[in-house]
Design a protein that fits this description.
This protein is an alpha/beta fold. The protein is 39% helix and 20% strand. It has helices at 16-27, 50-64, 68-85, 91-105, 108-127, 148-159, 187-197, 231-239, 250-254, 281-286, 314-324, 345-348, 352-363, 390-400, 426-437; strands at 4-8, 32-37, 130-131, 165-168, 171-173, 179-181, 202-207, 228-230, 260-264, 273-276, 291-304, 338-344, 367-380, 407-410, 416-422. Bound molecules: aspartic acid (ASP).
Length: 439
């Protein structure tokens, strides 16, 4: 029988009611044999995610040498869940062990990982599945790099002998047993890693929305849901801020072509979004664009120099300055005598002046300035490839709204047009583009 790997996010773990719903979903389909879970998330908008509380514990430990107040809130949260589930589990013993170990290891990553650990212990008990600790599966190097191939072998080997298991997401360990985590939201990556290793025919990622929307519903009223999208479209949209799925989740499943199905724990009858290796022609002909996503918080380093195009090594010298200051950039549109480097503000922070001075001394530009307050909006879709008129419709929609395009970049795959605009125009720009394509 084929295998489905399922991953449940923070809201699906938030309380006993949600976990009971999770157990029902798993029990409905025998193929759902390997379960990856997040730490309990928010139950209501003012609530705290357990992972955030665990980072706060680490912070308390650094400042006061203890974290009893914050940890007690976490303790109450887990005790409440176990009590309401009515399972017989000595959760206090686990919580005592976690509190002790947090003092012992005294690392932010270790502290943060304990939410997933405790979630998985509880869900395993509720389902009667084995608990397999992620520290014995996910391999990291000493400096926290994830070892994809070694992990794949390890997970294959361990799970080969386990019929049904619950595995904590988000973390793993290095050879000396020190815990490391993926970046925030990383349980999605853990799920994808398990799906690859067990040769799953489907990776279901259960969250609290009915899949990907073609635009952010906080910005566009009732955006159309996306039924199907390709790995590449997902990567573009997720990277550019559509945060339903961690942008790196695609890598483990890509090689084996395992589809990812985004589903809603609280509306299991909805089909959600299917993410597939390639879209077929009928799908491509249905629509020009698949979705729009965007991010705020960018600056443009704008450089002008006459005859820049004929000066050998110009771009390399400028980029070497960024590399020297450990700054990564996102886009680099160039003209004959101009170049613009689009950089996230978080990368540039406090280094603006030194970077400008250094570029001045290295390439002697006629003019250099940093323009801040920029947002990027990505319009994504295989449907636009090789079709004339997409950029024109997009620019026309922005012009009609009187929005000035500060930068425009179309990837050579032609599945993606990115515009840089003033952050004050951000919401209006997304609405304008959305309505230009969704008639
Ligand atoms: N609990 C972690 C976070 O909040 C990881 C995850 O949920 O995927 O980022």
């Amino acid at each position: 029988m084929s295998i489905t790997v399922v991953k449940f996010g923070g809201t699906s773990m938030a309380d006993a009611k949600a976990i009971t719903q999770v157990a029902d979903i798993i029990n409905q389909d025998k193929r759902r044999r390997y379960v990856v879970v997040s730490a309990p998330g928010k139950r209501f908008s003012q609530d705290h995610k357990v992972t955030d509380m665990l980072y706060a514990c680490y912070h308390d430990l650094q400042i006061n040498g203890e974290c009893a107040d914050t940890f007690n809130k976490i303790r109450e949260r887990f005790k409440g869940i176990v009590q309401d589930l009515g399972i017989s589990l000595d959760i206090d013993a686990y919580l005592d062990e976690v509190e002790r170990d947090m003092h012992k290891y005294n690392s932010a990553e270790f502290c943060a990982s304990r939410g997933e650990y405790l979630s998985a212990v509880i869900v395993a008990k509720k389902l009667g599945f084995d608990f397999i600790d992620a520290k014995d599966l996910m391999i990291f190097t000493d400096n926290g790099e994830f070892e994809a191939e070694l992990t794949n072998e390890r997970v294959k080997q361990v799970l080969n002998n386990v019929d049904k298991a619950v595995i904590p997401g988000f973390y793993g360990a290095d050879a000396s047993g020190i815990v490391h985590t993926f970046s925030r939201g990383g349980s999605d990556v853990s799920g994808a890693v398990v799906a690859r290793a067990v040769g799953a025919s489907l990776y279901e990622n259960w969250t609290d929305v009915n899949g990907f929307m073609s635009a952010d519903p906080r910005i566009v009223a009732n955006p159309k849901p996306i039924e199907k999208l390709s790995y590449k479209e997902l990567r573009e949209l997720a990277y550019m801020g559509a945060n339903v799925l961690h942008p790196e989740s695609i890598f483990p499943v890509r090689a084996s072509g395992i589809p990812i199905n985004i589903r809603n724990t609280f509306c299991p009858q909805a089909d959600g979004t299917m993410i597939v290796p390639e879209l077929d022609d009928s799908e491509l002909n249905k629509r020009v664009i698949t979705g729009i996503a965007g991010k705020k918080g960018y600056s443009i380093v704008y450089i002008e120099k006459s005859m820049m195009n004929s000066e050998l090594g110009f771009v390399r010298k400028v980029l070497a300055v960024l590399e020297y200051y450990n700054i990564s950039f996102e886009h680099l549109p160039t003209g004959i005598d101009t170049m613009s480097i689009i950089i996230p503000d978080s990368e540039l922070a406090a280094k603006e002046d030194v970077v400008v001075e250094r570029i001045k001394s290295v390439v002697r530009p006629d003019h250099i300035e940093i323009k801040s307050g920029i947002s990027l909006v990505a319009t994504v879709g295989h449907g636009m490839s090789y079709k004339p008129g997409t950029a024109s419709a997009l620019c026309g929609a922005l012009a009609k709204e009187n929005i000035n395009i500060r930068m425009i970049d179309q990837g050579s795959s032609e599945m993606n047009i990115i515009v840089g605009i003033a952050t004050s125009d951000y919401e209006r720009a997304i609405n304008a583009i959305y309505h230009a394509f969704q008639k």
